[in-house]
Write a structure and sequence with these properties.
With 335 residues, the chain is α/β, with parallel strands linked by helices. 40% of the residues lie in helices and 16% in strands.
């Protein structure tokens, strides 16, 4: 197939594009390579993709509707994998306009191009952050999610609502993927796994929020990519629903679905740090801090719907994933 992958210089984008290229698909990638975090890491991800046959890259901002329309005019895409976004909960507190441009304007541009080309399936990145202040665990796609606690989460929820409207109005098949704390080789340097590993190796204290009383559903990158690849071929179908079906947020008469992709095994933050210490062979120094605005104490993914739909449930044990990440981190950074 010919597949458009946006955010291909990003962590999930690069790994997904590489997997699809190795499977023999043709990939057209788009990324603006912004400086939210280390540009050199993004450029090195692109270099890695450039070593694989079948990769074509375009560098521009998806808020530029004209540039995106030109790419669609030059290609007929069998699938669109939209992973580009402004990431980060805390950054949304200081630069909210970046999220409006990258997560809302860019998303409506993508929907419009997919509608015009009658794309067979648009798969896009949502986030576990959409569950916001929900207390019920594990988080389920059948739960209402009406109380976001960050602008980032609100933009991701807006993406799901925008996608549903296009699925309903124009029969555009769309699937949103709520990713849960993704980690692994080539990971984002602003995420806890990279920050902690880097600080422990350098002998610097690590900032531990909520005094360490956090639990996260850490999900290894290979599991995320496996879910993405399987979902690309699982095109949602419009189906009649009963009069009360819209009471369930996971059901729709439109060709629209949302799935969690998480490890379904929440781990205490201090346990995760202990695993990094073991992999690095060095003890951490701690700087305990209060809960940060926009953050939540626990995430846990109910992945029953994903398993039922595509026969896959993420299951990489955290100790194994951390060993692989630390080995990559040390090799990449020569430490």
């Amino acid at each position: 197939m010919k597949i458009l992958v946006t955010g291909c210089a990003g962590f999930i984008g690069m790994n997904s594009a590489a997997r699809l290229l190795k499977a023999g698909h043709e990939i057209v990638g788009i990324d603006n390579v912004n400086d939210y975090y280390d540009v050199n890491l993004k450029e090195n991800r692109l270099k890695h993709l450039g070593t694989l046959p079948g990769f074509e890259f375009h560098r521009f901002d998806l808020a530029d509707h004209g540039a995106l329309k030109e790419v669609f005019a030059g290609h007929r895409f069998d699938r669109v994998l939209h992973l580009a976004a402004q990431a980060g909960v805390r950054y949304s507190l200081v630069n909210p306009h970046a999220y409006v441009s990258a997560n809302l304007t860019a998303f409506i541009n993508m929907l419009e191009c997919c509608r015009a080309q009658q794309t067979a399936h648009l798969v896009y990145a949502s986030s576990s952050s959409v569950y916001g202040a929900n207390a019920k665990q594990p988080f389920s796609t059948h739960d209402a999610i009406d109380h976001p606690v960050s602008l980032y989460a609100a933009t991701k929820r807006a993406n799901e609502l925008m996608a549903h409207s296009y699925s309903h109005l124009f029969s555009l098949p769309t699937t949103g993927l709520r990713f849960f704390t993704v980690y692994g080789p080539w990971g984002r340097p602003d995420m806890s796994m990279a920050l902690f590993t880097d600080a422990i190796l350098a002998g610097r204290p690590i900032n531990v929020f909520n005094n360490g009383q956090m639990r996260r559903d850490f999900t290894y990158i290979d599991d995320i990519v496996e879910g993405v690849v399987r979902v690309l071929d699982h095109v949602p179908q419009a189906a009649p629903v009963g009069p009360h079906s819209y009471d369930d947020p996971a059901k729709s008469a439109a060709p629209f679905r949302v799935f969690n992709i998480g490890n379904n095994t929440p781990v205490p933050l201090m346990d995760m740090i202990g695993l990094i210490e073991a992999a690095v062979g060095k003890k951490a120094l701690f700087n305990f801090m209060p809960m940060q605005p926009g953050d939540v104490a626990e995430t846990s993914a109910d992945t029953d719907d994903l398993e039922s739909a595509v026969g896959f449930r993420p299951a990489t044990p955290l100790p194994d994933g951390i060993k692989r990440y630390v080995a990559w981190h040390r090799e990449y950074h020569k430490v």
